[in-house]
Amino acid sequence: MNTVLPACRACNTQFPPSHYNAPDLLPCPQCGTPSRVAVFRALAHPPVAAPVSSATLGDGDAGCFYHPAKPAATVCDGCGRFLCALCDLELGEQHYCPSCLEAGRRKRSLTRLEPRRVLYDNIALGLAVVPVLTCFLFPLTSPVAVAVAIWGWRKPSSLLPRTKARFILAILIASAGLGLGIAYWIAIFNE
Amino acid sequence: MKTPHPYTPLTRRAYGPAGRYRLYLANDHLLHVHEEYFVERYQRFYFSDIQAISFQPTSTREIITLLHLVALIGLALLLAVLMIYKAPVPPVIFSWSLFGVLCLSAIANHLRGPSCACRLQTAVGAEQLYAVNRLRTAARVLARIRPLIESAQGPFNPDELPESPAVLASPVAQPPPVPMVRMPKHCRGRAHWALTGLLALDLLACLADLYKPMTGAVETAYGFLMLFGMFGVLIAALVTQAHSDLPNRLKRLTYVTAGFILFALIAFSVIPMIWNHVQQDELRFWGNIYSVLGETVLCLAFWRGLRGWR
After folding, report:
1. Which of A116, A123, A161 sits opposite B40 (nearest CB)?
2. If one looks up domain B8-58+117-155 in CATH, what number appears?
3. Domain locations in chain B?
4. How far apart are CA B264 and CA B234, in angstroms?
5. pLDDT tens across B128-159, in order?
6. With a threshold of 0.80, does the pTM exceed it?
7. How far apart are CA B183 and CA B188, in angstroms?
8. pLDDT tens digit sequence for B14-62
9. Does the beta carbon of A9 lie under 8 angstroms from any beta carbon of chain B?
């Protein structure tokens, strides 16, 4: 993989090495925009494709589970199988075999592979609060808000620290809104 | 014993082009979280993959200050009008509260220091970290993560860079780094067509109402149906256009329509309920004029944008 050197955001001119890891903002040599660039070792050592080992299995060597003729390079952190360099899939500091990675993605057991999460508590709270602004949608959104809150209670929530407070708040507001809405409509019809 | 959470916040929530952003620190990576209210999207940058982090000052702080000033001047004028015409107390209190909140927000924006754009580069491409939008925050984040990156990769030695002295010696423009973007999904704009249809229908109804006002059950039924229909279609349009290939001007137009409908709802339905001093006939007339003019413009804009779109 070719090395792409860090460039100025304004003019896309690459920064000279004298800018690398400077403690202060320095002007871009082309457009003069002040910039600070922190460069790390990975820039000089971009990742290379996994070498396809041509070595054959010797006596006493452990073989790859998927390629028995190839010597094992590591162990899968998911299932413990021996893996050759080709089958080793690195995820941060952990190593996985292709099937564990695929299973983790499908079953959502590997949170590191998840690109998104739906926030059911926010959906319930939104449905509970919107009628407060519009005054008209209580009969429609309040039951839906309670249903979403109950349904989403045990669903996986955000990856980040988060309590169930929004669910509780949504149920309370929706219930109150529903009660008030019903009372309002009864009063209207009685008139 | 309670286990510590794997993610520690590195920055406060920051507003970016499409929602809120926040940066978290884990034991071996950075997590850039994009909050879209109902969905959180995650980008992970492993310490062993980070090649460079750069940040440059932007004029965002000055623009925000300018917007605050414009809003404050507008509110001051509104307050003056309310005082002169001896408006009831609730709107005055509301306007003063808004004025105070805006003042505090402007001061906070100033105190947070100069704004910046931060880019993180890996072998795959460069990505802007919207969560890091102030120079002070950027310096603090860099000081915090630099030792972690260096412990994962080892210290940087400039001599290890690929030999290309001609390129390095003179500043030469290079092709932009490839941003790590998802492939947008295709949106046919059916919800937008439906929204255009509803706007056109309401436009005709408003014209008819100007000629001969609706009354009784017809008015109530039409109002409720239009309200539910408009909200439903608007939500469908907003959901389908998110991360789609729909042109940006159409996406912006949907947000403008949402603002247009909400303003109409608040100005011509909610405020008259609170403030009884409004002349209902006059308000109805101006509401119809607002709807006719606004919906004509929106219908034409949607029709122009959607005409050739499949």
Report:
1. A116
2. 2.30.29.30
3. 8-58+117-155, 60-111, 190-306
4. 15
5. 999 999 999 999 999 999 999 999 888 888 77
6. no
7. 16
8. 887 778 999 999 988 999 999 988 899 999 999 988 999 999 999 889 9
9. yes
